[in-house]
Each structure stands twice: as structure tokens, then as C-alpha cells.
Amino acid sequence: RAQPRVFSGIQPSGVPTLGNYLGAIRNWVPMQDTHEAIFCVVDLHAITVWQDPKELARQTREMAAALIACGLDPKRCTLFLQSHVHAHTRLAWIMNCVARLGWLNRMTQFKDKAGKDKEAASAGLYVYPNLMAADILTYHATLVPVGDDQRQHLELANDIAQKFNHDYGVEFFPRIEPLIQGVAARVMSLRDGTKKMSKSDPSDQSRINLTDDHDSIAQKIRKARTDAEPLPGHASGLENRPEARNLVGILAAITGTLPENVLREHEGKGFGAFKEVLVAALVAHLDPIRKEMARLLDDPATLDAQLRLGADRAEAVAAPICARAEEIVGF
Ligand code: ADP
Ligand code: NA
């Protein structure tokens, strides 16, 4: 193989947000040239919590369009829908039988996502990390760009891979390394600077979606929580000011600079004025993406054909690896 193989997935569990863009999607774009890049809209993962079928279908297509509009080129990467490639579920079953209950019980994300009534959570949500392990390992991918929230799942995937290799006496699944890119842009909620901006949090509508036009971006940024202090000249002046730090971080990330530079330029400004600068920068950056998304969604036949082609390419890699795993197991 000429280039290392990287795998990443994103759930169609809502409209992609500015957080998904700055924290994940945008960083995937340059990988197309340096890696054999496999990107997947993980609709199987999405139904670990209830999804209205029509909404799921719509959001899945919308997510795929967003990824392309953000710069993933179906010719330069493998872009597809998880449910189209059956190796994911076939290998996930084997992973279910390799992973130990004790390992799953330690996953903090299950505890967060299941909420108060754990007994009412789906079994799928519980074994979600096993499917994630299968997603990566059925491509023998060795690199996975992850946010902090997924680190524990990646370690579990490695534990599963090692146990499989050990139990069956093979050196079949490679080790997976997390790919950590530059300064991790973590975008926080505009309503509460201590919570992340999330596409899948129904209780918080303050998020900026990639489908938002000028007016809704302006409205959301103007409503964003801040404090009465002006912008400091240095990052140390943002300590204990999570909302202020978040807005500075967003402007830095969207304009491709460091928070220090943003602060140097806007020192002493009030947030009223700063928010207008931020709105202009966001609109300038996101408007072409929004328009390209709309154009792609206007031509569903072309989009579907691109995703089918992506699934064929993914299948060609995944199916033989999955088949070999099944053979090792004794099927
Ligand atoms: P969400 O909470 O929006 O449903 P996912 O869990 O599907 O997000 O994550 C998709 C990708 O986007 C992951 O790589 C994750 O690390 C990244 N991501 C999600 N929210 C944010 C955020 N607020 N800031 C930065 N990156 C994020
Ligand atoms: Na998630």
C-alpha cells in the first residue's frame, strides 16, 4: 500500500454543525491527498437511539452532501453509507463475541448517552463500540482521526483486535493509532460554554448548522451568551470565561489563525462589536458550503450514484478482510 489507510465516520443524527466542521470534517479534507481515506456516514450507529425513518433517510443524504460540500471529493476518497456495506455488521457480530462485558461496562459515553434510565437504553447503544471496532478493522485501517470523546472507544477497538489475534493465534488485525490533528478545535455550545456544540442534543437549539444562512447565523451569534468584559489582549484573560473563549476560538479556527492573534487584533473590543466580526467571518466561510449542499441535494440521482460508487469501492476492500476473519473464526 502506498499511503496509510485512514477511516473516519460521522453519524447522520442531525444537521452537521460548525462543531462537526471545525472539529472533524475540515480536517479530513487534506487527508485525501496524504492517505488512502475512507469516510463513512454511520447510519447504523445513528439508530442506537430512536430515529424517525424519513428523517434518518433525509439526514443521511444531507450529511453526505455536507461532506462533499466541505471538500471531500468522491473521486479522491472513499465516501459511502455504512448500511450499504454489509461487512460492518458481519464483523461487528464477531466483535460482539470477542469483546468482554466488563470492557463495555467501563465506557463512559454509554453512561452519558443512556441517560438516567440505563435499562431503557437500546442494546445497540451498549455494543456501539464493537460496531465501531468493526468499522475500522474491516478495512485494516491503522489511523483514525478522533476527538477526545472517542479515545476510549479506540482503545477498546485495539483491545478487541488484540484479543481476536490472541484467541485465534493469528496476526490478523493491525494496531490502530489515533490521528491527532494540530490544535483540536472544540466548539462549545453558544448557550453554555461548558457543553460542546452538538448536532444531536435536542435540548439545545443554539448550534450553528452548516445549512444556516446569513440571517440565522447572525441571530444565533448575537444571542450567544457572553460576559460584559471587553476582549483581553492575551489568552490568560479568558480564564473562567468559557463563552468568551469559545467565540474567540471559533473566529480563530474559521479564519485559520490562533486565538492569540485574534485577541491581539481585537483587544479592548466589546462583544457586541466582536460578534459582528464573527458573523461576517462565519458567513464568508460557510455560505459557499451551504450553497453547494443545496445544489447537491437538488440532484439526488447524482448524489445517490456517487454514494453507490463509494460503497462499491468500500466493499472491495472490506469484504475480503471480513471474509478472512470469518474463515479464521471457523465459518
Ligand atoms: P454530535 O455530538 O454533533 O452528534 P458526533 O458524536 O457525531 O457529533 O461527532 C462527529 C465528529 O465531530 C467527531 O469527530 C467529533 O469529535 C466531532 N465533533 C462533534 N462535536 C464537536 C464539537 N462541538 N467541537 C469539535 N468537534 C466536534
Ligand atoms: Na457520537
TrEMBL record:
Q: Which UniProt keywords apply?
A: Aminoacyl-tRNA synthetase, ATP-binding, Cytoplasm, Ligase, Nucleotide-binding, Protein biosynthesis
Its EC number(s) = 6.1.1.2
Residue sites binding ATP per the record: 11-13, 19-20, 147-149, 187, 196-200
Annotated region (Disordered) at 193-215
Name the domain of life. Answer: Bacteria
Top-rank EC class of the record's enzyme: ligase
Q: Where is this motif: 'KMSKS' region?
A: 196-200
* Subcellular location as annotated: Cytoplasm
Subunit structure, as described in the record? Homodimer.
Q: Fetch the NCBIfam families from UniProt.
A: trpS (TIGR00233)
What job does the chain carry out?
Catalyzes the attachment of tryptophan to tRNA(Trp).
This chain's protein is named Tryptophan--tRNA ligase
Q: Which organism is it from?
A: Falsiroseomonas oleicola
- Upper classification of the organism: Bacteria, Pseudomonadati, Pseudomonadota, Alphaproteobacteria, Acetobacterales
